[in-house]
């Protein structure tokens, strides 16, 4: 290559002066890229360091440091008095592939494609908080000063727990959760049955993976939580949509149309998204079917702490006499989503298998947050926080219900609103959910269509009247009032 052309290549190397990354690291990366893409070919002699300095207006030490890194990694060869060369061991660069050329990327496996596709339809929160974001607790009520103190205290006293830990989770935390769940939800368990997970989503993925073989059928509420159908599909299960009515999951429909299912996912205390509670006859029928067919029931009790009319309902697991219910809980809705702590309560015969599966996935959940949570519960902060947020959520729920009745009573009819962090509202007039939702985003509010939770493969039995799911727990009163005004303008075509 002519020296003039090489000098042009060197002079064009991208360097950002004043950037946080040191110049020698930038120069190292730029030369490495030029070698790998073929602009600097194997055996090519680079100019002396002083010439390099002149071309780029950098110090000689910058060039020497970059050369040293590249030589250590095998991109350059050189010796005093001989010069510096691109290593002949670096293979010639292949011609760059066209971005639109078919078949050039290595394909994912069939299982990989299933995992990737499974969660594409799950909505992810984006941007700042605004009315009426669903699934969000009121974070500004959380005592972060207390939490910071508890974590700092643990960091100041490192002990053997700071090595690899029990995949099942921090034992004192499991013991405290056992006491709490017995008292608040009637869950019958021992600490050995509890497995701490990185959020309830990890629990759902583990259960789908180890309880189902590819091709097995699983009942899924429709409408229902897409974040649960995703893991089922990723595991290769055949998801069978089962309709939901005022009494919860229609067990008789599932038995009549898919009796061979190996698992059923349910949200019996507060159905997602319709907000209904499963009646006692339906619960008993579901347990009887599972016992007779040796099927598993996954009870997702995602926000039962927030019940505003009376005490929380007893869990489905409390009625289980056939050891078929796996109880799944999350702390994202009670504390804050970024904590990423959840748990499973497994039947005794299943617990050890879930612990081993958890170890395969990530060895164990981060230990310091578990320790801090154990202290948070033991010192009474957990109970006080739940009581405080329950009262706050109830006030904001009342604001939303009254606001709908006052401003949108002719447009919306509220569904059950006695628990949870959101409520569903059905259109009284003919509105298209997606059109309303898009108009909301254009006006700065989030309106989740109820149709988002419907299984596309579900039959007419699973069709839910059109409407919206409206979150209220995290929405300040002024933002809620603004959201209701905008929603009213949208529904009235203004």
Question: How would you describe this structure to a colleague?
Answer:
By secondary structure, the chain is α/β, with parallel strands linked by helices. It has 16 helices and 15 strands. Helix 3 packs across helix 4 (60-72). The chain starts with a helix and ends with a helix. 39% of the residues are buried.
Question: Summed up, what is this model?
Answer:
This protein is an alpha/beta fold. It has helices at about 5-10, 25-35, 50-55, 60-70, 110-120, 145-155, 170-185, 200-210, 225-235, 250-255, 280-295, 350-360, 365-380, 380-405, 435-440, 475-490, and strands at about 45, 75-80, 85, 195, 215-220, 240-245, 250, 265, 295-300, 325-330, 340-345, 410-415, 420-425, 450, 465-470.
Tally of structural domains: 3
CATH fold-level topology of the largest domain = Aspartate Aminotransferase, domain 2
Tally of contiguous helical segments: 16
How many DSSP-defined strands? Answer: 15
Mean pLDDT: 88
Largest sheet: 8 strands, mixed
Strand content: 5-15%
Strand order in the sheet with the most strands: 4-11-10-9-8-5-6-7
Helix/strand structural class: alpha/beta
For CATH, the homologous superfamily of the largest domain is named as Type I PLP-dependent aspartate aminotransferase-like (Major domain)
**Terminal-residue CA separation:** 69 Å
CATH uppermost class of the largest domain: Alpha Beta
Radius of gyration, in angstroms, nearest whole number:
29 Å
Based on Cα principal axes, name the global outline. Answer: globular
Which regions have little confidence, pLDDT < 50, spanning 5+ residues? none
Instruction: Specify the CATH architecture of the largest domain.
Output: 3-Layer(aba) Sandwich
Helix content: 40-55%
Quaternary state of the chains: single chain
């Amino acid at each position: 290559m002519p020296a003039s052309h090489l000098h042009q290549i060197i002079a064009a190397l991208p360097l950002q002066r004043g950037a946080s990354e040191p110049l020698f690291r930038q120069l190292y990366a730029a030369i490495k890229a030029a070698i790998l893409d073929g602009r600097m070919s194997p055996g090519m002699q680079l100019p002396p360091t002083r010439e390099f300095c002149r071309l780029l207006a950098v110090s000689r030490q910058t060039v020497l440091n970059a050369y040293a890194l590249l030589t250590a990694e095998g991109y350059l060869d050189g010796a005093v008095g001989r010069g510096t060369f691109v290593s002949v061991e670096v293979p010639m660069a292949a011609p760059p592939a066209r971005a639109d050329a078919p078949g050039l990327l290595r394909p994912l496996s069939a299982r990989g494609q299933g995992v990737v596709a499974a969660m594409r339809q799950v909505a992810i929160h984006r941007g700042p908080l605004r009315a009426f974001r669903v699934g969000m607790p009121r974070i500004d009520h959380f005592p972060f000063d207390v939490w910071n103190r508890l974590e700092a205290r643990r960091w100041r006293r490192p002990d053997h727990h700071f090595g690899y830990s029990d995949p099942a989770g921090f034992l004192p935390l499991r013991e405290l959760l056992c006491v709490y769940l017995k008292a608040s939800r009637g869950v019958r368990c021992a600490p050995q049955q509890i497995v701490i997970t990185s959020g309830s989503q990890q629990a759902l993925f583990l259960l789908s993976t180890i309880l189902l073989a590819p091709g097995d059928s699983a009942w899924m509420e429709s409408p229902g939580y897409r974040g649960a159908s995703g893991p089922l599909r990723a595991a290769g299960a055949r998801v069978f949509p089962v309709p939901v009515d005022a009494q919860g999951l229609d067990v008789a429909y599932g038995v009549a149309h898919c009796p061979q299912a190996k698992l059923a996912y349910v949200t019996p205390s507060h159905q997602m998204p319709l907000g209904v509670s499963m009646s006692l006859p339906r619960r008993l029928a579901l347990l009887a079917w599972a016992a007779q067919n040796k099927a598993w029931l996954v009870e997702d009790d995602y926000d039962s702490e927030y019940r505003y009319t009376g005490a929380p309902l007893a869990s489905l697991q409390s009625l289980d006499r056939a050891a078929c219910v796996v109880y799944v809980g999350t702390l994202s809705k009670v504390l804050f989503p970024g904590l990423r702590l959840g748990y499973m309560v497994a039947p005794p015969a299943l617990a050890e298998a879930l612990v081993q599966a958890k170890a395969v996935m990530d060895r164990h959940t981060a230990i310091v947050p578990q320790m801090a949570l154990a202290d948070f519960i033991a010192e009474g902060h957990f109970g006080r926080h739940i009581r405080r947020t329950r009262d706050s959520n109830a006030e904001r729920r009342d604001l939303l219900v009254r606001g709908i009745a006052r401003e949108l009573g002719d447009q919306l009819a509220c569904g059950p609103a006695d628990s949870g962090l959101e409520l569903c509202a059905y259109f009284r007039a003919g509105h298209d959910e997606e059109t309303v939702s898009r108009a909301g985003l254009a006006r700065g509010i989030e309106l989740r269509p109820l149709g988002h939770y419907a299984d596309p493969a579900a039959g007419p039995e699973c069709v839910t009247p059109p409407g919206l799911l409206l979150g209220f727990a995290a929405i300040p009163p002024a933002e809620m009032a603004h959201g209701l005004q905008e929603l009213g303008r949208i529904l009235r075509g203004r």
